[in-house]
Design a protein that fits this description.
Elements (H helix, E strand, L loop, with lengths): L1 H17 L2 H5 L16 H15 L5 H5 L7 E2 L5 E5 L4 H6 L6 H12 L8 E4 L13 H18 L3 E5 L1 H7 L6 H4 L4 E5 L2 E8 L2 H6 L4 H13 L3
Parallel strand pairs: 2-3, 2-4, 4-6
Antiparallel strand pairs: 1-3, 5-6
Helix pairs in contact: 3-7
The structure holds uracil.
Length: about 230
């Protein structure tokens, strides 16, 4: 009897190995996506979807009325690094993605200089619709979109937030600061429930106008590269 039970047990183990029971009884979702896509936890994905819907529900906003598309984000929502720019421009408005124009090409180069690319970081903006003629968003517009970008940071919960330029800096750090004094420093901040390290650097569009400042941006990029997270 004992011998028969042992034989059954051996048969059962062989059978489990044959059917790859690890896969069947593993409680993680099967990843059927291409290799360079990512699984986002159900919560994070649904929170991002809800945030997108609430931005889409904004009423009486001339930015939204004049824009072709909402520009929500690009990159990996599981990234430990979140980069925040100012506002979409014409190319971003057309494609519905942040930093895809000339400033985006420079951002890609800056990221490549520290062995990162846009698929490895998460990118968004202070406002989600293009201001007409690429003007800066007004204080009122920034105020209106601020709760959304704070919620966005909270959902992504990054270890590092990189603020690109003074609009992002003033919106999230305060109006009393100037970028020449604030860039290249780590600042510990809390956005909603997310405690994170913030660094401010120059906006790529500013660097295109002032290429001499690229050496300062390089210092900031190395700080991001060398940060232990
Ligand atoms: N500039 C920004 O600040 N954001 C973009 O998405 C594009 C250009």
């Amino acid at each position: 009897m004992i011998k028969k039970n042992n034989l059954n047990l051996i048969k059962l183990i062989k059978y489990y190995n044959l059917i790859n029971h690890n896969l069947i009884y593993n409680n993680k979702a099967i990843n059927r996506y291409k290799k360079d896509t990512f699984e986002v936890s159900v919560d994070k994905a649904s929170n991002l979807e809800r945030l997108k819907e609430s931005i889409n529900d904004i009423k009486n906003c001339s930015l939204k009325t004049n824009a072709k598309n909402m520009v929500f984000s690009d990159g990996n929502p599981k990234s430990k690094i979140m980069m925040i720019g100012e506002a979409p421009g014409a190319n971003e408005d057309m494609e519905g993605l942040p930093f895809v124009g000339r400033a985006g090409a420079l951002l890609d180069k800056m990221l490549a200089a520290i062995s990162l690319d846009r698929k490895k970081v998460y990118i968004s903006n202070i406002v989600n619709y293009r201001p007409p003629d690429n003007r800066r968003p007004t204080e009122e517009e920034v105020k209106r979109y601020l709760p959304f970008i704070i919620k966005h940071i909270e959902i992504i919960n990054p270890k590092i937030v990189v603020l690109l330029g003074s609009t992002a800096m003033n919106a999230l750090i305060g109006n009393e600061v100037v970028i020449s004094k604030m860039r290249g420093k780590w600042i510990e901040k809390k956005f909603g429930n997310c405690r994170t390290s913030v660094i401010i650097t120059f906006h790529p569009a500013f660097l295109m106008r002032q290429p001499a400042q690229k050496k300062m941006a390089w210092i900031d990029l190395k700080m991001i590269r060398d940060k232990k997270i």
